[in-house]
Design a protein that fits this description.
outer membrane lipoprotein receptor (LolB), chain A, three-stranded mixed sheet, 3 helices, mainly beta, about 15% helix, DUF3108
Amino acid sequence: MARWSARADWRLWLALLASLLAHLLWLTPDWAWLPAPVRDEPPAKPLTARLQVLAAPTAAAKLAQAPAASPAAPLAQLAKASAPTRGNAKKQPTPSPADAVDADAVDAAGQTAPESAPVAPAPSAQADARFPAQVSLRYEVFYGSLMAGIGELDWQGGEGQYRLELTLRSLFAPRLRYVSEGELNANGLKPLRFDAYRGDTRREHAEFDWAAGELRYGDRDEQRTELQAGAQDILSLVFQLALRAGALEGQTVQMTSGKKVYSQPVRIDGESEQNLAGQTLVVVQVSSEARGQRTEVWLAREQHNLPLRIRNSGENKLIDQRVIRVQVDGETILERPEPERIHHGH
């Protein structure tokens, strides 16, 4: 009787495992279901061309409105407050063009990659190159070597405003959503508000009061700190790098996750070849590292400096987002081919 019970238990577990695998393959058609191995990246090579600083888009993208949340100040009110006023506005230092991706990454370490020869401008560089008004990026998200979900990152910008939204979907956790909204100017992104949602519940958030020089952030208990010139949130920082990484190298940027505030250095490591969206692409690696945490963003020079890969690593974690589709102004410019089906015996 005990032997029969043990066999029944094993059959039940095997059935549950088979059912889980079937659901994984059915619900996540975009993933390559054999997990990618975790391996160290080879050192980046010296740059052959610099990252171009891109101008903000002028064409208006239709900005979607974020779901209203009662604790948050209206975006229009924050935008009005961001304009300098006489008397109470703090004068913030403006980074010069020459000086000028996870909440756990802070403070850089090490030296920039050595250059063996003078770096030439990118062949396709144009003085009036502009960032797209609309971008949609789809990522596979790996936790270690396990394919954990799909990420959708959408950008809309134009007429002095921008909106960024990142949605992460997993089989084993509620949907996560992050929204950053703010202004666009000659210095790139100027965030006004950042909100994080778990399911439909608003959690941590941040409000950038530029007129008062104050950053308000937190989950249940709101905290306040001095707002520094050029401050970003975890979403806006990635696209600020896309627009201005070439002008931000060597700077330290104030960054918030809505829960904490960090000092985020910007370091350009060099370039490398990455297999992304089914193609081998030359990308520029930008990184930040301290306290055992490291954030790396790979920007594609020939694709508007878009972040095609984002990786956060530390002592006990490795989260890797790899792009599988890129759409710019409604046109698909990169997409990984559908994986070939594996046939057994036929």
